[in-house]
Write a structure and sequence with these properties.
This protein is mainly alpha-helical and about 270 residues long. Strands 1-2 form a two-stranded antiparallel sheet. The longest helix is centred in the N-terminal third of the chain and has 21 residues.
Length: about 270
């Protein structure tokens, strides 16, 4: 049974606490009383179900903040959030909770810094899990096919809050662009440059190098090593064991497929 099923089934108590716990309770609506009276032991920080609850809450609420970063929430950004929900095969109640979290994230009083601080603490230095979180936020920002400067600034701030260097953001950005067919930027040494736009297969290959953080000067052995490392970071089963909600396994699987496509492109 997934963490959500355990929650509504009363298998464990609602003990997340903090801003994430408050928002999750708000998102549950009328189910909050049932959740707080659930029978079971208190979840300790780092427990898988607790991390899954925190990941779900942070993902959709921060996604709302990212969508609002440029001053407006486009229909594409709303559609992207709904697409994520569709791929997770959320139950009607779970989908409603996700939409409430998304709406909360758009509000001016959304406690972004407090949410990110607690999320990082709940993840207990699970870098791969936090990286997946950033990937979902970058994908949300690119929902309309472009990245607004305000969105980029917020995404870089999110990375900083989670302890990631800008280079990690650029690698994630390349993967998202490649996945969405937006890889029309020029890459060099794993970094994207706005000038000298490339097109077609040249752009795709440049993006593939950026995704794997390698260059044409690297050997096939080095490229293969980088590919295996990135695939290990995105392995769905490993991510779920670290706290990724089981409902998001399909999203993680899609990421591994795109990484494999990038590697296959460089092999040829």
């Amino acid at each position: 049974m997934s963490w959500w099923g355990k929650l509504v089934g009363g298998t464990f108590g609602f003990f997340l606490g903090g801003p994430l716990g408050a928002m999750f309770g708000m998102a549950l609506g009328h189910n909050i009383d049932t959740a707080t009276r659930a029978i079971g032991g208190k979840l300790s920080p780092g427990d898988q179900e607790r991390v899954q609850m925190a990941f779900f809450t942070a993902t959709f609420s921060v996604m709302g903040a990212v969508a609002k970063a440029d001053g407006k929430v486009s229909s594409d950004e709303i559609s992207l959030a709904e697409t994520v929900m569709d791929k997770m095969n959320l139950s009607p109640e779970m989908r409603q909770a996700a939409m409430r979290l998304f709406i909360k994230g758009k509000q001016d009083d959304f406690p972004l810094e407090e949410v990110m601080l607690q999320f990082r603490q709940e993840c207990h230095r699970r870098a791969n899990l936090m990286r997946m979180f950033i990937e979902l936020q970058v994908q949300a920002a690119y929902a309309d096919g472009d990245l607004h400067p305000a969105e980029e600034q917020l995404l870089l701030k999110l990375c900083q809050m989670l302890g990631f260097h800008e280079s990690v953001f650029r690698q994630i950005e390349a993967l998202v662009q490649f996945s969405m067919g937006l890889g029309d930027g020029h890459y060099e040494g794993g970094q994207q440059h706005s000038g000298n736009r490339a097109t077609g297969s040249v752009a795709s290959k440049a993006a593939a190098y950026a995704i794997l953080e390698v260059t044409p000067q690297h050997s096939q052995a080095d490229i293969k090593k980088a590919y295996r490392r990135l695939m290990s970071q995105h392995h769905p089963d490993k991510l779920v064991s670290k706290g990724l909600p089981e409902e998001m396994m399909k999203l993680a699987t899609e990421k591994t497929q795109k990484i494999r496509e990038a590697y296959d492109l460089l092999k040829t």
